[in-house]
Structures are given as structure tokens and as C-alpha cells.
């Protein structure tokens, strides 16, 4: 060994985001002039700089090299002791490598970020937002989650209530918001609330959201019921106050007829008229009116329509036009390969399917795509998977695969699931060439798959931008 080394100090401590220096002293104990190259090795080597990187020493002389350690303030700089080494390679004797070792202790720091997905939820009886908690520090974090709002209008169900998050990882907390009082009539009301991520010894991290509570019945329906009730009461009062006087004149006319036929006291039987007109047996007014014949109608059930009622006719359910419906119609009209697709747009729902390069979705309206419905013909089927802005690949390595003329769905229309940021596709035969429109980036460069191979289309995975529109050809 023709080299002597010394690290001063052998152990050092540094805070993430700052730097510290260690001096490496080197002495040429050989008998020839030599040049030495210095190379840091170990887990912390990406954050080490050496100055100078080469050193030329005469026999018996000593030189100094400075090592500067500058770990970033991220979760990559793991807290605790981290051994390191410096590989010293002589130019004259490259096989005689010397590797002095030292220890660098990186101090711990904690930093938590939280985000509500979505920040605004709507409902009559409950809302279900998700809280994403990211640990961007370099040590494990244990935290609890609690909710509060001004006026105590909401109750909170939080699952799980406590989380442990490793450095560089995230945890998702499911939250159910329930209003303490139901709005039976009236318009919607906004209920601001706050979810707090609490850790021991530090101030809580608060995230604000809004729960829009809808009325159970609209206000116009309450007004209609009030007017209907007032009219019903008025009708009943008028009916009670108005009693029609119905009387029969049959008795009066009978009494008048009897008085005309009664004999006077001085009259004899011979003087009585023999042909006095007889009183009518009953007055026409007292005789019951003859029943009028009733129209039997088309049913022919005499006497008041005694026929059995016909059962109500059921209305046919509306037919949903999917991508498979459209591609089958197109394939029937034109041979060859075709692709049809439609988009489920946030706050708007399903659009009508389009085919072979037409545009699906929206552009410039901040309405991301949540689900893509795709169907093909002439390619022996299509496979794919959807990547979400927050959750990433929601189904992991489970790929959706469908044959020709069958609907394939990528993504989720659930309110708690974030929109799509992109998707992958693969066909058995032929190629698929999507063109995607990403929020704040516009239309991306069109790309094509190769038969039997996967390819990703959409926002760059590290940017996590919302997918807004697509055009696909085969």
C-alpha cells in the first residue's frame, strides 16, 4: 500500500436541504509521482461532490480533498446514519485501489400535505369526499384525522381515524359527511367544513372543503301544495255554506184537487155534478223522471259500462346507444376495421358515441373525462386500462379486454374517484392511433400501438393532468 488516508471528521451530521463538508487527507507513501482519482460510493453518493476530483502528489507529500454533502429536503434523504466511502484509484497502480469509509447522519424532518378529492361534494343526506395525505418528509408519520365546521351543521364518519405513512408514500382516508338537519323544502345550501390532519407536537394541517346540501323537495313544490290546500279548504267552506232548498209540489196540488171535489152542506146528491173533472193522481212534478238511456260506448257493456278495465300499457325502456351499438352499425355499412367511442364527462354524463377519428369529450371547458367506452370491429378485440389523476392505475394490473363489437369501459364514474389522466390500449390485429387533449397542455402528439403491444396515451405520468378529449382511429 503506497497511500495513507484520513477522513476528518469520520462521522458528520447534516440537515436535509443544507450541506456539510468533510476533509479527506491523502499522502503518497510510495517512491514515484502518482495521480489519484476520487469517486464517492454508497447510498448518499448522488449528493456528494468532490473537489478536486484528481490530485497529483510527489512521494512523501500530502494533499487535501473536500467532500461536500448536500442531501435534498425530500423523502429520498432517509433519516439516520448512512455509511459512505470514497474510492481512490492511483493512475500508476490502478489495481491498488483504496476505499476509506465514513458515516453521514441525516437528521429527520416531517412534512405532510393533504388534499380533498373532490373539494366540493353534493347530496341530500350525505357526501363522500376522500382525503389524500402525503408524507413528503424522510421519517414515518403517525397522524389522526378529524372534521369540524362552523355552526355544527355536519357529522363526520372518518375511516380510518388514524394513519401511519412511510416516507414518500400517501394514505387515503374515506370520509362520510351527514347533515344534522334535512332540508325538506327550499334551495340548496353550502356547508363549509375543515378536515384536520393532527400530529403530535406540531400544528395540524387543515384542508377546507364544501358540502352542498340539496333540498329534499324543491321550493316550487311546497308553494304548489300550499295553493292546492288553500283552494281545497275554500271549496269545502263554500259547499258547506251553500245548501240548495229542494221541495216537492205534489202534496200542494193534491190538497187543491181535494178541495175542489168536496160537496157543499146544502147540496143534494142529485145536484152534484156527475162529470166533475177528476184530479190527477199525481202531479207531473211528483212523477219520477224516466231514466235516460246511457251510451254503452265502444266497450258495449250495457247499463253503465260494466266491462273489465284494460291493463295499462307499459312504456318501452329507452335504448342506450353505446360504443358497441355504433361500431356494429358502422361495420354493417362498411367493411374493414372501425373503432367507436364515447366519453363520460364530469357534471355532464355520457355523450353520444362517435367513430373513426371524431372528437369525444370537451375542450377548454374544464370538464374532464371520467370514463371512456370503446368498441372495435375487425381487430379481434381490444384491451386497455385507465390511469386516474389521484389514484393512478385504479385496478392495478387487471386489464379490461373485450372482443369485436363488445363494450370496454376504462375509468370510473363514481363521484369520489378522480378523472382520467390517460389510458393504455392494445389490439390483437392492426393498430390503434389515439390523439389526446390534456388540460393546460392542449392536443398531444398522436401515437399508434403495434399489434399485440401496449402503449400509453394522455398526460405525462409525472404531471397528473386531466384528460379532456380524445380522437381515435384504427
Structure report:
The chain is mainly beta and 474 residues long. It has 3 domains: 3-106, Immunoglobulin-like (Sandwich), CATH 2.60.40.10; 112-213, Immunoglobulin-like; 323-473, no CATH class. Helix content is 11%, strand content 40%. It contains 4 helices and 32 strands. The protein has helices spanning 219-241, 250-261, 302-305, 323-333, and strands spanning 3-8, 11-14, 20-28, 34-42, 48-51, 54-57, 62-69, 80-90, 101-106, 112-117, 120-123, 130-135, 141-148, 154-159, 162-165, 170-179, 189-198, 205-213, 338-345, 349-350, 354-355, 359-361, 369-377, 382-388, 392-393, 400-402, 408-411, 420-427, 433-438, 442-443, 455-458, 467-473. The strands form 7 sheets. Strands 2-9-8-4-6 form a 5-stranded mixed beta sheet, with no helix packed on it. It has a 5-stranded mixed beta sheet with strand order 11-18-17-13-15, with no helix packed on it. Strands 19, 20, 21, 23 and 27 form a 5-stranded antiparallel beta sheet that branches. Residues 257-306 have low confidence and may be disordered. This is Hydrolase.
Amino acid at each position: 500500500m503506497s497511500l495513507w488516508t484520513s477522513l476528518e471528521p469520520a462521522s458528520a451530521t447534516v440537515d436535509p436541504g443544507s450541506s456539510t463538508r468533510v476533509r479527506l487527507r491523502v499522502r503518497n507513501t510510495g517512491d514515484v509521482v502518482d495521480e489519484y482519482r476520487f469517486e464517492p460510493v454508497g447510498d448518499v453518493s448522488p449528493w456528494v461532490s468532490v473537489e478536486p476530483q484528481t490530485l497529483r502528489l510527489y512521494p512523501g507529500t500530502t494533499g487535501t480533498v473536500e467532500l461536500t454533502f448536500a442531501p435534498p429536503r425530500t423523502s429520498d434523504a432517509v433519516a439516520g446514519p448512512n455509511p459512505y466511502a470514497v474510492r481512490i484509484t492511483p493512475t500508476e497502480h490502478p489495481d491498488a485501489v483504496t476505499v476509506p469509509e465514513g458515516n453521514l447522519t441525516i437528521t429527520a424532518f416531517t412534512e405532510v400535505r393533504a388534499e380533498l378529492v373532490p373539494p366540493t361534494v353534493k347530496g341530500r343526506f350525505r357526501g363522500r369526499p376522500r382525503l389524500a395525505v402525503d408524507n413528503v418528509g424522510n421519517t414515518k408519520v403517525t397522524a389522526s384525522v378529524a372534521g369540524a365546521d362552523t355552526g355544527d351543521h355536519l357529522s363526520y364518519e372518518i375511516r380510518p381515524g388514524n394513519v401511519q405513512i412511510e416516507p414518500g408514500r400517501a394514505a387515503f382516508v374515506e370520509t362520510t359527511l351527514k347533515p344534522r338537519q334535512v332540508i325538506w323544502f327550499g334551495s340548496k345550501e353550502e356547508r363549509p367544513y375543515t378536515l384536520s390532519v393532527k400530529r403530535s407536537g406540531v400544528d395540524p394541517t387543515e384542508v377546507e372543503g364544501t358540502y352542498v346540501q340539496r333540498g329534499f323537495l324543491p321550493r316550487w313544490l311546497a308553494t304548489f301544495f300550499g295553493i292546492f290546500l288553500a283552494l281545497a279548504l275554500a271549496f269545502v267552506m263554500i259547499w258547506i255554506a251553500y245548501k240548495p232548498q229542494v221541495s216537492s209540489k205534489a202534496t200542494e196540488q193534491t190538497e187543491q184537487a181535494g178541495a175542489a171535489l168536496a160537496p157543499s152542506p146544502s147540496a143534494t146528491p142529485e145536484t152534484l155534478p156527475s162529470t166533475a173533472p177528476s184530479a190527477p193522481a199525481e202531479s207531473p212534478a211528483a212523477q219520477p223522471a224516466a231514466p235516460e238511456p246511457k251510451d254503452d260506448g265502444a266497450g258495449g257493456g250495457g247499463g253503465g259500462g260494466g266491462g273489465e278495465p284494460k291493463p295499462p300499457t307499459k312504456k318501452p325502456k329507452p335504448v342506450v346507444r353505446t360504443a358497441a351499438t355504433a361500431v356494429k352499425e358502422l361495420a354493417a355499412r362498411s367493411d374493414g376495421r372501425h373503432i367507436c367511442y364515447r366519453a363520460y364527462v364530469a357534471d355532464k354524463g355520457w355523450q353520444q358515441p362517435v367513430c373513426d377519428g371524431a372528437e369525444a369529450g370537451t375542450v377548454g371547458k374544464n370538464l374532464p373525462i371520467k370514463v371512456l367506452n370503446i368498441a372495435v370491429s375487425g381487430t379481434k378485440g381490444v384491451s386497455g386500462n385507465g390511469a386516474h389523476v389521484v389514484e393512478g392505475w385504479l385496478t392495478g394490473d387487471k386489464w379490461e379486454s373485450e372482443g369485436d363489437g363488445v363494450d370496454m369501459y376504462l375509468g370510473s364514474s363514481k363521484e369520489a374517484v378522480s378523472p382520467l389522466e390517460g389510458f393504455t390500449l392494445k389490439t390483437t390485429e392492426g393498430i390503434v392511433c389515439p390523439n389526446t387533449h390534456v388540460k393546460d397542455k392542449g392536443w398531444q402528439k398522436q401515437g399508434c400501438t403495434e399489434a399485440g403491444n401496449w402503449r400509453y396515451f394522455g398526460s405525462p405520468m409525472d404531471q397528473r393532468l386531466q384528460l379532456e378529449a380524445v380522437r381515435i382511429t384504427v
